[in-house]
Sequence to fold (438 residues):
Amino acid sequence: MTQRLVPDLVLTDAGWQSGRVVVVEGGRIAALEHVHRVWPSDVMLTGKALLPGTVNAHCHTFQSLLRGLGDDLDFMSWRDRVLYPFSEKLDRAGIALGAAFAFAELLLHGATTCVDFFYLNDDGNENAEAVIDAARRVGIRLVLARTMYDWEGAPRRYCETVADAARRTRALVAAHAGDATARVQPAPHSPHGASPAMIRAGWEVAETEQVPFHIHVAEGRYEGQRTLAEHGATPIRYLDALGVLGPRMIGVHGVWLDDDEIARMGARGAALAYCPSSNMFLGDGITRIPELLAAGVRIALGTDGGSANNRLSVFEEMRMASLLQRVRLLDGSALDAERAFAMGTRAGAALLGLDAGVIEPGKLADLVAVNLEDPSLHPRTDLLKSVVYAMSPRAVSDVWVHGRHVVASGRLTTVDERELLARVLELTKGWSISTAAR
Ligand SMILES: [Zn+2]
Fold:
């Protein structure tokens, strides 16, 4: 089926253009043509601008169900009183519901791709398949970062042997190799959640399957000291010594890196999934983004889990990425809107290996329409800067993923939002940290 989208403005590599029709076919952008005439079947996006959909490079979808439970705790208290006990309460249906809930909110906020760094594996792939199924139903593009975890201090359901984790991850990657809207990539959890053998195994799966791998690294200050004590090197040096620091690595957070570690990430071609709001929310610190960019590190943006942010919007992360560097460097020009926007769109897609994040022929038809009548986009000075710094999530009116119109006039077309929220309320009824199992 061919669709012709006719917005007032469309953002291309050549900037904002008017008088264009975006032709969508088979999930991709087939052409970007001048409007010569309008057909009755054209989708008229009058008063709207069309942008590439945003890419959420790091999330834990089930955590949306934990939002608000331990918001003002320190990280260790949150982990022990909220994350561990409440993640034990979720059966497969609960996991799928949490995923659908997070995907719905992300789509409504203009995110067309989500990485779900998923670790409630229960010694199998069925829970991950339930998340993949939820993504398909709600209509978001998914990269399931299939976690490989063997630190025994965490709930049993996170943990597997190295051999099982590698075998199951490989099987899941293969099962979705031809999937149009869902992919699987390995994710050895972190230097503290995965043993050296597990990290190596994750890297090997990435190498043989020719996909990236995801790993949390240097999020809190304590991690560097712990990795140094346990493995004799700070996190990036440790990963380099393991032989996994390279172009397939997507490090998540990277808050506590010294100059040499930043230089090594650049030299080895590693990438970063940066989660500025989460880093603020958890009191982690400020990642040195301009330095990482200067070293040649590719950087995408992530929201992190819904209970560590607590918003799910990549547009929000663009704004936060820029503001945080300004306050760190006392410099209003530290990270401009164009760079922040690129991190949340094309850079994110590129580092995940997706043909998206840009509106041009051949790219995936993952698109967002914003309402130019929204007050937050006035006055009409520099529209891209307004999108990054001023736009309200209310302005997101329509979203397409793989050419499927999944949000229309601010409403999901794929699932009943009221029913979804009712199910979330039902599942979480009575939850509070005083009712936690431990
Ligand atoms: Zn994370």
